[in-house]
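no rush on this but wanted to send it before i forget. theres a chain ive been looking at and ive put its sequence and its fold in token form underneath. please have a look and point out which stretches look like helix strand or loop to you. thanks a lot i owe you, the record is right below:
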Amino acid sequence: MDIATLFGLIVGLSLVVGAIFLGGAVDVFINLPGMMIVIGGTLASITVAFPLEEIVQSFYAGIKVFGARKVKARDVINIMVKVAEISRREGLMALENVQTENMVLKKSCQLIADNADPQLIHDTLRIEINAMRRRHQVAQDVFKRLAGLAPSFGMMGTLIGLIQMLSRLDDPTAIGPSMAVAILTTFYGSMLATMIFIPMQAKLKARTLQEQLNLEIIFEGARSILENNNPMLVYEKLSSFLAPKERGN
């Protein structure tokens, strides 16, 4: 589980809610029509901008950010070194029996076992990387659009509230409460954008870069094993992907 994402979301919401509690009445921040305008309008608009399947996949990707453990580059390097050890000890054909949930790594082991040309491995993994980037880009675009739509509908709700308020200027006692309700929709839109949609887009972008790096490591590892399956040499080459302080002695 990505503790940082969950921790940041909980702390951020807790601070905002805590500030509301310390400020007095909480019920003044609850307005059903405003929620309908912001949440309903945002969701309705995003279904116009993107196919439903892509929206569902994007929200699924956002949920996975909380549950999926981040695979570090060092872990991938260690796996490729172990693959090199197996190939050196048992031969390239033994890599056909490597068990892994990573389909790209499984495909790479199969290509190594088949003694495929390094260019073929490069082309195959490049297709995998491009396909992964396209999938992730869709999710990022969905959350980016949501981050723009939520404040817009918040402002729309504020305008609706102001129009309703101005239509009741003959009753001075209604101006204050009506103004509060009008501003609430902007608050809802800003909260959704700044606390959920923008951070989620940034997190997905970071995960895309990390997964791309991991695939690059798998490719370089596979090519190194074919060229020279000495585990120490494979590690020395792949460790270049790590920051100097993360490399072993």
